[in-house]
Structures are given as C-alpha cells and as structure tokens.
Amino acid sequence: MDLSDYTNIWRVILLLMLSKQIAEEESSLLPRFIKFKHLNEAIDEYYLHAFSPEIIHALQFVQESKIAAEFLSKHAKASGEQKESITFSENRFQTNLLYIQKRFEKVLESLKLADSHTLFIDGIDIRPSGIPYPEYLDCVKGLANAVWQLNNDFFPKIKDSKGRLKVVLLIRPDIFSSLSLQNQNTKIRSNSVYLDWRTSYENYDTSSIFRMTDKLLSSQQTNKNRFDKVGDAWAGYFPYQMPSASAYNDSSFIGFLRYSFYRPRDIIMMLEFLKENAVDKNQVEKEHHTFEDFDSADFKRKLSDHLLGEIKDQISFYYTNDDYEFFLKFFELLEGDTRFDYKSYLAVHAKLVKFIKTTGKPIPQFMDTPIQFLQFLYELNVICYVEDVEGHKPFIHWSFRDRSYSNFSPKVKEGVRYEIFYGLSRAVNSGKKRVNKAPV
Question: Looking at the 3D structure of the chain, how many domains does it have?
Fold first, then answer.
C-alpha cells in the first residue's frame, strides 16, 4: 500500500470510532437525527451489538469493507436517504472504502452536537516485532496524515454545531520528526501541544512537574486540611534535604529530578519503588521517607532498570533486538567509566565496530560512524555533553533539556566531555572502574 491507502484506511477507522463515541455519550441524538440512527444501527448489526472502542476492532470494519459497505447501504436505503441498491465487490477495496468514508462524513456533517468530542490515539511508539520499521513508519505516516486531514479539512466544515470534533495523536518528538510532514514547524507551533516539563533546580517549586506530584500526593489524603499549600504534601512525605556540594542543601525533590528525564511517569515510578521497598521491609506504617531510602542500592537498581526499559522501548521502534544488544555492548567496553572524553569515545567506538564484525551481523545504521552513534546516545538521553568555559562553571547539555519548539532535534557537540545519565549507571554496569587482572 502507498501513503494514500494508509491515510484512507485510518480516516475511516477514526470516523467510525468518533461516531460510536458520540452515540454513547450523546444518545439523545439517535432519535432526532435519522441518518445518524441508521448509521449506528448498521455498525451495531455488523458488530452484533458488541463493538469495542479499540483500533483492532475498528480495523476489522475496514478489512471486511464489502460487508461493512453493504450494511451501511442497506440501512441508508431503509431510511429513505438512498433510493437505489448498490452492489459492492471484494475486488474493489478502494471503492468500498470511499463509500464508507462518504457515508460517515455525510452523517456527521448533519449532526448538531451538544458537547465537543476528542479522540486520543496513543501507543503508536511500540512497533510490533513482526513488522519491519519502513512498513510500520508508512502506517504511522498514514495515521498522521489522516488526523491532519480530518482536523484541518473535514471537521471545520461542520456548521451550526455547538460541539466540535477533534482527533489528537499522542506522539514522541523523535517519531514526529520521522514523519516527513509538510511544514512541520508550523504544525508544531500552530496545531500541536508540546508537553514541556522542564524546570531548573532553583525554580523547581513553581514548576508544573512539582505541582503535579504534590497534587497527586495531597489528593489521596482523607484529611484535606493536612496539606493546604502547594509543597506541603511533598514536604510531609519527603522532609529531608539532598547532600549538596553547594553552599545550600537541595530539596529532596531535586534528587528526583536528577534521576529522571523530567517526565511525570519517571517521578511516579520512583514513588512506586519507594512504596514497594517499604512494603518489602514491613514498614507499611511509615509516615515519611528518608534520604537513606532514596539512596539505597535496591531503589536505584529498580529505577535504573526502569529507565533502561524505557530506552529499550524507544530503540525497538526503529531497530532489532540484536541492535539493542550491540548498544549494551558499548557500556561493557567502557569498563565502568561514567565520564569520558572524545578521544576515549572514539577508541571505544572502534572496539565496538570490531566486535560487531566478529559476529557476522550487520553494523546497525546508528553505529555506522562515531558521530552517528554519539548523536544517537545523546538523543536517547543516555549521555550529556559538557562544555568547559573559562571563568564559568561547565555548561551541561541534555537533549531533553535543550529540545524546544524551534529545535526538536538538538545536536551533540564533538570534542568535549561526556557523562552517562546518573539513573542509568547501575543498569548498564557503569560507575565502578573495572580492574583487568593478569592471569596467574
């Protein structure tokens, strides 16, 4: 299939899911709008009144386009909207699909919605192992184009309706950059919401990620008056200070930021791991956590494995399990170093390429050249680069902190110093220098 095929298929799937969402949430529309009533009767007849609002079930409607089109045609004729009978063929998939699409669009255009309806599409960043990356990317490109066409070309044409329709695609920035959409910068700025949780250590207490975490903790309290100000809940659970080399001690939340990629799920997973450890140690009555809890080897191991799992998911969108194993080999060849300069990096990359050649397997595309692999590590937030500036403390650059609307793919710098992300060191066996002893 080409891009237009994928786009047309996704367009029908999205219209189907929106139609069922509207029917369930605004059931009063069914007796008032005959076209919509008969459309839903056709869908119910096809699914035997057992439609489930998931992509896999909606895909079945498209795969059996002849049967689906026949049900829609039968009910359109029963309502008096369609006068003649239409014959559909298994061999005319595109024609069947176009008929189905036009039926949905004609019916939805006639509705007067009381509420707005938004359909969120998530989970596309996990590529099924049996589908090659180029084919899966074509499928995702088709989805993105279908979402754009519906939001930009079709939904705005629905007039005199209080409620509006919208489809929202939840997508990672790196995957968005791979879609090759026209005018990407305009789409990012004018038609997207970029979830930016960045903050600084100095201003953490006014940041969205801190307020989110504090609200999560305070909302679970039976005594709502216990934490009446922003920050009270966090201080109640984590009253300690982080050891710091600076003239002042850091809040306990700074430790969570240092070991996260500034994402809410990272913070939440840390809370879960601390809770698990307390249960394992029969400390269920514990009222607050200490720095020793946060600094424990068990907690850091769980966190490190979690973060490495997140990175594996990112890599699996593009590459194979063999590629992931070669990625891990890089850290083994570092022999425990968490900090290295460019010269050391080049030497380790050369060893890595030499090792891969001995396996008889192809060198992954992202490892072809030293700068490609360095950029790959930087984009994954596995490493940062450090610029030493005379008369000033070093500038530390992380991809997730340098990314912005105007720079979705920040570039790594060559010839400087590099450090592995703190939270990953245990999972990749870094942090302790290996000692190679000569055989006795």
Answer: 3
- Largest distance between two CA atoms of the chain: 93
State pTM to two decimals.
Answer: 0.83
> How big is the CA angle at 386 (ends 381 and 391), to the nearest 5 degrees?
150
Using CB atoms within 10 A of its CB, is residue 31 exposed (0-12), middle (13-18) or buried (19+)?
A: exposed
If asked whether residues 47 and 140 sit together in one domain, one would say yes
257 inside domain: yes
Number of residues written out for the chain? 440
Compute the average pLDDT of residues 181-187. Answer: 81
Question: Do both 172 and 212 map to the same domain?
Answer: no
- Cβ(378)–Cβ(399) under 8 Å? yes
The reply to whether 168 and 99 lie within a common domain is: yes
In-domain check, residue 300: no
Q: Which residues contact 371 (CB under 8 A, 6 or more apart)?
A: 412, 414
CA distance 364 to 384: 22
The 10 Å Cβ neighbour count of residue 340 is 17
Among 96, 92, 91, 114, which residue's Cα sits nearest to residue 27?
A: 114
Are both 325 and 406 inside the same structural domain? yes
Taking residue 345's Cβ as centre, other Cβ atoms within 10 Å add up to 22
Radius of gyration for the chain, computed over Cα atoms and rounded to the nearest angstrom: 27
Domain of 33 in residue numbering reads as: 3-191
**Cross-strand bridge partners of residue 119:** 167
**Three-class secondary structure of residue 99 per DSSP:** helix
- Of the three residues 138, 166, 191, the one that is the final residue of a domain is 191
14-37, pLDDT tens digit by residue? Answer: 999 999 999 999 888 888 898 899
Query: The tokens of 259 are what?
Result: 């070991």
Q: Identify whether residues 52 and 183 lie together within a single domain.
A: yes
Residue 198 within a domain: no
CB burial readout 268-290, b (16+ within 10 A) else e:
ebbbebbeebeeeeeeeeeeebe
Tens digits of residue pLDDT in 372-398: 999 999 999 999 999 988 888 889 999
52 and 127: one domain?
Answer: yes
